[in-house]
Design goal:
Helix content: under 10%
Oligomer: single chain
Shape: flat
Number of helices: 3
Structural class: mainly beta
Number of strands: 67
Radius of gyration: 41 Å
Largest sheet: 7 strands, mixed
Length: about 700
C-alpha cells in the first residue's frame, strides 16, 4: 500500500495558511486543561478496510468559548497505516460539530477537521467515528493516532495540545497450549489427568472461519477418553456441546471440540480437565496431542500410568568404554528386558543417553527372537540422536528381550565417569552400561605474558594419556578416513609460537612423528603409532610472542580439535597464563619460615624459606624473581663469579654474592647489605631487586608476611 503524496489542494492550502498565521505564538500552560483527548480501540488484522475505535474530544475545565474564534483538530496515523476513505468518517453522529477540511480522500495518513461552531460549554464532546484503516502487513501491536487540537482567536493560537491515543490493536493470532503437573494414573475409569489450557494471545485467534476444529488425541497404549467427561470450562469464547456419540472417535482416543462463537474483546481460554479410562496394562507417560485449525500441534503429558512390569538386568557394565571425541562398540555389555507382564502390540520404550553422548546404531543389537517370532522394532533416533525408540509390533508374547553390541558416540562435552542410559515409557529406570573417559589431560604452569613482546620463554606443557592407546595414530596424508589428522595445540588470537618447540615422549611408548607450527598459532604434532603403555608428552623450549590483538586476562589454549571425530570442538583447554602489560608485576606473598609462596593466588613451592637475620628479611632471589614476572629462562646463575642475572623487558639486574653493588642495566646501586648463599640459594633483602623492576614491597609484622605488588 503506497502513501499518496498528492494531498488535496484545499487541505494543503489550509495547513499552509495556519502555519503562516500563527508564527511566534507561545505554547499553552501545561497546568491548564483545555481539552481531553480519548479513544476506544478494536482488534484488527494487518490488511485493508479494518474498523478502528472512536476518538473523543471533550472540552476541558479551562476552555473559555468567548476567547476563541475557531478550533481545529488534526489526526495523523502512524507509519504503515492509512485511512481507507475519509469520506466514510462519521463526525459526531450527524450533528456536524466537526467538518472535514478539504475534499475527502483515500489512502492518506492524516486528516484535518474544523469545529463548525465554537463549542458552547465545558464538557462538550466531539466524536470521530466509523474510522476504517488500511494496515500494512508488517504492522504489529498497538496503532496509535496522533491527535492535535488547537484553539484560535483571530490570527493567534490561544492553546495547542497533542496526545497519542490507541485506536486499534493488530491481533497476534497466536494460541498457546500448556499443561499442569502430570498426575499419577492408576487403573480404572474416570481417572483425572493434568488440566490442559488452550489460550489466545489476542481475541479472535481461535476463529470459526476454518471450521473452528480442535482435536485432542490420547497417545498412550491402554488409555482412552472417558466419554462421561463434562464440558470444558471456557471464557471469552463458546464451544459446541460435546456429543458422546459424534465427538469421540478412534476407539475413544480422540476428542473433537468445535468453536461456536469466537472471542472479540477478551482473550479466549479453554480449560480441559481430562477424564480417562486407564487399563491395568497401561504404563509410562500419558501424552495428549492437541491440534486444530488455529493451533500448532502440541504434545502434553497429563499423567503417568501404572508400573512398567519390566525387570532390567545389565551385565558386564564395566567392560566397555568410549573416549570423548570418539566412537566405540559396546560389545560386552548385555541389557536384558525380562517381562513379568505381557508384551503387547503398540507397547514402546525409549533409551536416552546423557548430554554429549549419542547413539550411532541401535538397530543391529536387537535379539528379540521368541519362539521364532520377532516382536521388537527399532523405530528411530530423536532428541539429537540421544534417544532411541523401540516399538512392539509382531506379537503379544511375554519373554526376554536382549540388547547388545551398542554403538556409542561421545563428543567433547561428554562427562567422564559412568555412562548411564535412562529408559522411558514401557520400561523405566536408569542403568550403567559402561564408562566415558578423556583421551588425555593437559597442564602447564601459568606465566605472565607481556603484550607487544616477542620471544617470551614459556613453561613446559605436559599432555598425559589417560590409558594405553587413548590417543590414536594420526594420518596427515588423509589416506585413512578413520584416523585423526593431528594433535593440535591452538593459541588464542594475538598469541603465537615464536619458534617450533621440542616435543618428547618422556614416559610410555607413544611414537611422535613430525612437529610443526602452522599459521603461527597452531602447534601440530603427528602421532606415528599409538601407545601400548599410557604415555606422557612434554613440550619444552617454548617461546611465545604477543601482539596488541591479545585480550587482557587469562590465555587459554585449545587442544585436540583434530582428535575429535564427532565435532569441531577441542577436547580440552588449559591455561598458559595471562596477558599483562610489559611492566606489570603480579601480586605475590611470602611468609617467613614457609617454603610455599603465592603468585596471583596460585601456590608454589620453594626449597629455601625466607628468614630474618638481625633486623632484615632475607628472601631467595630465584623465587622472588618469578614473583616479579621474570621467567625461569631469564634467571641465570654464574657459579664461577657467584652472580645472579635477572632479565625482564628492557631491564637487566645483576647481584653478586658478598657484594653490596647491584647493577641495573650496568648502572651501580649500593645496597646496605650483601647477598648470602644459603643451601645453594642466593638470598637478599628483596626491596632493592623489587624496586629495580618497578614493584612495591609490603610487610605485615602480625602475620610475618612479605607482599610484592
Amino acid at each position: 500500500m503506497l502513501k499518496r503524496t498528492n494531498k488535496k489542494l484545499a487541505l494543503l492550502l489550509v495547513l499552509t495558511m495556519l502555519a503562516t498565521m500563527f508564527v511566534g505564538v507561545g505554547a499553552a500552560s501545561a497546568a491548564q486543561e483545555y481539552a481531553v483527548i480519548d479513544s476506544s480501540y478494536t482488534y484488527v488484522e494487518a490488511e485493508d478496510a479494518q474498523p478502528a475505535g472512536v476518538i473523543d474530544i471533550t472540552m476541558g475545565e479551562d476552555y473559555v468559548a468567548a476567547n476563541l474564534s475557531d478550533i481545529y483538530v488534526e489526526v495523523t496515523l502512524p507509519e504503515g497505516v492509512e485511512f481507507t476513505d475519509t469520506a466514510t468518517l462519521d463526525l459526531n453522529n450527524g450533528d456536524d460539530t466537526l467538518v472535514l477540511l478539504g475534499a475527502a480522500a483515500e489512502g492518506v495518513d492524516s486528516a484535518l477537521f474544523y469545529y463548525n461552531a465554537v463549542p458552547g460549554a465545558v464538557d462538550d464532546v466531539a466524536e470521530i467515528a466509523a474510522i476504517d484503516l488500511d494496515i500494512d502487513s508488517d504492522v504489529t501491536g498497538s496503532i496509535k493516532a496522533e491527535v492535535r487540537v488547537w484553539g484560535v482567536n483571530g490570527d493567534s493560537i490561544v492553546w495547542d495540545i497533542t496526545d497519542d491515543v490507541t485506536i486499534a490493536k493488530v491481533a497476534a493470532g497466536d494460541v498457546t497450549v500448556s499443561v499442569a503437573s502430570a498426575k499419577a494414573l492408576t487403573p480404572g475409569a474416570g481417572k483425572t489427568g493434568a488440566k490442559i489450557t488452550i489460550k489466545e494471545t489476542s481475541p479472535g485467534a481461535l476463529s470459526t472461519t476454518n471450521g473452528g476444529d480442535i482435536f485432542l488425541t490420547v497417545k498412550a497404549t491402554g488409555v482412552k477418553w472417558d466419554t462421561t467427561m463434562g464440558a470444558p470450562v471456557t471464557s471469552g469464547i463458546t464451544l459446541d456441546a460435546i456429543d458422546a456419540d459424534d465427538d469421540y472417535s478412534n476407539n475413544d482416543k480422540t476428542l473433537h471440540l468445535t468453536v461456536d462463537t469466537a472471542s472479540t474483546i477478551v482473550n479466549g481460554k479453554i480449560e480441559i480437565t481430562p477424564k480417562l479410562i486407564v487399563e491395568p496394562s497401561a504404563s509410562g507417560e500419558v501424552i495428549i496431542q492437541v491440534k486444530g485449525d488455529d493451533i500448532d500441534t502440541t504434545d502434553v503429558v497429563v499423567g503417568n500410568a501404572g508400573t512398567a512390569g519390566i525387570v532390567v538386568t545389565v551385565e558386564k557394565d564395566d567392560k566397555d568404554k568410549v573416549y570423548a571425541g570418539r566412537t566405540a562398540d559396546f560389545e560386552h555389555v548385555k541389557i536384558t528386558l525380562d517381562a513379568d507382564t505381557i508384551w503387547r502390540i503398540g507397547d514402546y520404550f525409549t533409551m536416552t543417553l546423557p548430554a554429549g553422548v549419542k547413539w550411532q546404531d541401535v538397530a543391529a543389537p536387537i535379539d528379540d527372537s521368541i519362539d521364532d517370532v520377532d516382536i521388537l522394532k527399532f523405530a528411530g533416533l530423536y532428541n539429537n540422536d540421544q534417544t532411541a525408540w523401540f516399538s512392539v509390533t509382531g506379537a503379544t508374547i511375554g519373554d526376554d528381550i536382549e540388547l547388545t553390541d551398542l554403538q556409542i558416540l561421545a563428543d567433547y562435552n561428554a562427562v567422564p565417569g559412568d555412562l548411564e542410559v535412562t529408559f522411558g515409557a514401557k520400561v523405566t529406570g536408569t542403568y550403567k552400561i559402561g564408562t566415558v573417559a578423556q583421551q588425555f589431560t593437559v597442564a602447564a604452569d601459568p606465566l605472565n605474558l607481556p603484550v607487544n613482546t616477542a620471544d617470551i620463554p614459556g613453561n613446559t606443557i605436559t599432555i598425559t594419556e589417560t590409558a594405553a592407546g587413548a590417543i590414536l595414530a594420526t594420518d596427515n596424508d588423509d589416506d585413512d578416513a578413520d584416523a585423526p589428522d593431528a594433535l593440535d595445540i591452538v593459541l588464542p588470537m594475538g598469541v603465537v609460537f615464536a619458534g617450533v618447540p621440542d616435543v618428547d615422549v618422556v614416559d610410555g611408548d607413544l611414537e611422535i612423528g613430525d612437529v610443526e607450527v602452522v599459521d603461527d598459532d597452531t602447534l601440530r604434532i603427528q602421532i606415528e603409532a599409538k601407545s601400548n603403555l599410557a604415555s606422557v608428552i612434554e613440550i619444552t623450549d617454548i617461546t611465545y610472542s604477543v601482539d596488541n590483538r591479545a585480550a587482557a586476562g587469562d590465555i587459554n589454549a585449545k587442544v585436540g580439535k583434530e582428535l575429535n571425530m564427532n565435532s569441531t570442538n577441542p577436547l580440552a583447554t588449559f591455561k598458559i597464563g595471562k596477558i599483562v602489560s610489559a611492566t606489570s608485576v603480579p601480586a605475590s606473598s611470602f611468609v617467613i619460615g614457609a617454603t610455599t609462596y603465592t603468585i596471583d593466588g596460585v601456590e608454589y613451592t620453594m626449597d629455601v624459606a625466607p628468614f630474618i637475620s638481625g633486623d632484615r628479611t632475607f628472601m631467595p632471589i630465584r623465587y622472588v624473581a618469578y614473583a616479579l614476572g621474570v621467567s625461569e629462562a631469564n634467571v641465570l646463575w654464574d657459579g664461577a663469579s657467584q652472580t645472579v642475572t635477572l632479565m625482564k623487558g628492557d631491564k637487566i639486574v645483576q647481584i653478586k654474592v658478598g657484594s653490596t653493588q647491584l647493577l641495573v642495566n650496568g648502572a651501580a646501586i649500593t645496597m646496605d647489605v650483601a647477598p648470602v648463599n644459603v643451601n645453594g640459594r642466593v638470598c637478599l633483602p628483596i626491596r632493592f631487586v623489587a624496586q629495580a623492576f618497578g614493584a612495591t614491597v609490603g610487610w605485615d609484622g602480625a602475620t610475618q608476611t612479605v607482599t610484592i605488588d
